[in-house]
Write a structure and sequence with these properties.
By secondary structure, this protein is of the alpha+beta class. It folds into 2 domains: 184 residues, Ubiquitin-like (UB roll), CATH 3.10.20.30; 183 residues, Alpha-D-Glucose-1,6-Bisphosphate, Chain A, domain 4 (2-Layer Sandwich), CATH 3.30.530.20. 29% of the residues lie in helices and 26% in strands. The strands form 2 sheets. A 7-stranded antiparallel beta sheet has the order 7-13-12-11-10-9-8. Helix 2 crosses helix 3, helix 3 runs parallel beside helix 5 and helix 7 crosses helix 8. Keywords: 2Fe-2S, Iron, Iron-sulfur, Metal-binding, Oxidoreductase. It holds the Pfam family Fer2. It comes from Methylopila turkensis. InterPro entries: 2Fe-2S-bd, 2Fe-2S-bd_dom_sf, 2Fe-2S_ferredoxin-like_sf, 2Fe-2S_ferredoxin-type, 2Fe2S_fd_BS, Beta-grasp_dom_sf, CO_DH_gsu, Diverse_Oxidoreductases. This is Carbon monoxide dehydrogenase.
Length: 401
């Protein structure tokens, strides 16, 4: 059990509530809104503040199982309430389905509205009996998005509703539910019904994923140097779990046999977090200190196949040089990011992170990437890539002058 959080402030109103499953006892000023309390006192900054008039919906959270505007809700009125912010859905199966659908349908752009949009979308997926576009659009009228035009958002919600109903998951009761402290029925409400339960995520099985030879659409080469002898480096490459811990976002779920691994890579972009799951076959040549990893994975409509050939040779000063040949083929919406130049640049940055973590592992230190890492952040990679190209352009410009 998590210990309760206790926050004290002189001359303020005491309030006790539950936030993301954790008891919180605090003293707040009467004018403090729930959104400010979540962000400033509890550091739950996934709840965004936009209009602060209850219009845009960016601040939407669950209060006693109901979507509520936290910018209009006084924290002092939430005595005994059960509050769930976007951070509280990390282990929620329904929210995982919505995040994956938002990713497939490109249902976010700047991402500012997305936390509140996802909270509202989850309520719709629970309540609506069928993926009625008109009803979804009407229900989303309280969540403003200035980027996407809503089409991808509506499609994502429709997909999740249709998929859940096809699996026999019925909508929650349409009866009027007792509302928490933000509702007009609070004074006359019957004892509150429990909020919709958080459904544990069952990791999809990858045991049936077929890994076969393929013709790469694109191939490129990379190399890096580490300050450890080739024998030690090649030996570490034989520990698939250890290697995965060195690559940002990568994870291994199972090793059914010495030459097969099942797992994937996590990709995190703001409130959207998805995992490309698949399997890989592994082959090693001890005499040549070389190996080959052949993998396949998918997430919704996107799929990828990849091949990594590596060889560990003598490097400078008693160290090692690791030479990589990478081939890949992408299918579905993700293919738009498969341009060779872009992939090569991003791969170069990933290889640099991998080499740094590999050296840390060989030195007996914990790598930055690991089981607890949030996942690969393409926005950070793209930003670094952009600044790198700007720096290169400025350097060429100075050279000309």
């Amino acid at each position: 059990m998590n210990a309760p959080v206790r926050l004290r402030r002189a001359g303020a109103t005491p309030v006790a509530l539950t936030v993301n499953g954790r008891a919180v006892a605090a003293e707040v000023e009467p004018r403090t809104h729930l959104a400010d309390f979540m962000r400033e006192d509890l550091n739950l900054t996934g709840t965004h503040l936009g209009c602060e008039h209850g219009v845009c919906g960016a601040c939407t959270v669950l209060v006693d199982g109901e979507p509520a505007r936290s910018c209009l809700t006084f924290a002092a009125t939430c005595e005994g309430a059960d509050v769930v912010t976007i951070e509280g859905f990390d282990d929620d199966a329904l929210m995982a389905e919505l995040r994956a659908a938002f990713n497939r349908e490109h249902a976010l752009q700047c991402g500012f509205c997305t936390p509140g949009m996802l909270v509202t979308a989850r309520d719709l997926a629970l309540r609506l009996a069928e993926p009625d576009e008109r009803r979804i659009r009407v229900a989303l009228a309280g969540n403003l998005c200035r980027c996407t035009g809503y089409l991808g958002i509506v499609r994502a919600i429709q997909q999740v509703i249709a998929d859940r109903r096809a699996r026999g998951i019925e909508p929650v009761s349409g009866e009027v539910r007792a509302l928490g402290p933000v509702g007009a029925r609070c004074a006359t409400a019957a004892p509150r019904e429990p909020a919709a339960p958080i459904e544990p995520i069952a990791a999809p099985s990858t045991s049936a994923v077929a890994v076969s030879d393929f013709a790469p659409a694109h191939t490129f080469e990379q190399s890096f140097v580490v300050a450890f002898p080739p024998e030690r480096v090649f030996a570490l490459f034989g520990d698939v779990r250890a290697v995965a811990e060195c690559l940002p976002g990568a994870f291994v779920d199972a090793m059914p046999s010495p030459d097969r691994a099942e797992g994937g890579i996590r990709v995190a972009l703001g409130p959207i977090a998805v995992a490309f799951r698949g399997a890989a076959t592994i082959a090693r040549d001890e005499a040549e200190r070389s190996g080959r990893i052949l993998g396949a994975g998918a997430d919704g409509r996107s799929g990828a196949q990849g091949e990594i050939r590596y060889r560990v040779v003598d490097g400078p000063d008693g160290g090692s040089e690791v030479r990589l040949t990478v081939g890949y083929a992408l299918k579905g919406p993700i293919a738009q990011f498969g341009r060779p130049g872009l992939v090569r640049d991003i791969a170069g940055r990933l290889v640099a992170d991998f080499a740094r973590n590999l050296e840390a592992r060989l030195a007996g230190r914990a790598p930055d990437a690991g089981p607890g890492s949030p996942g690969l952040n393409p926005l950070r990679l793209a930003t670094g890539l952009l600044f790198g190209r700007i720096a290169s352009w400025l350097a060429r410009l100075r050279a000309r002058r």
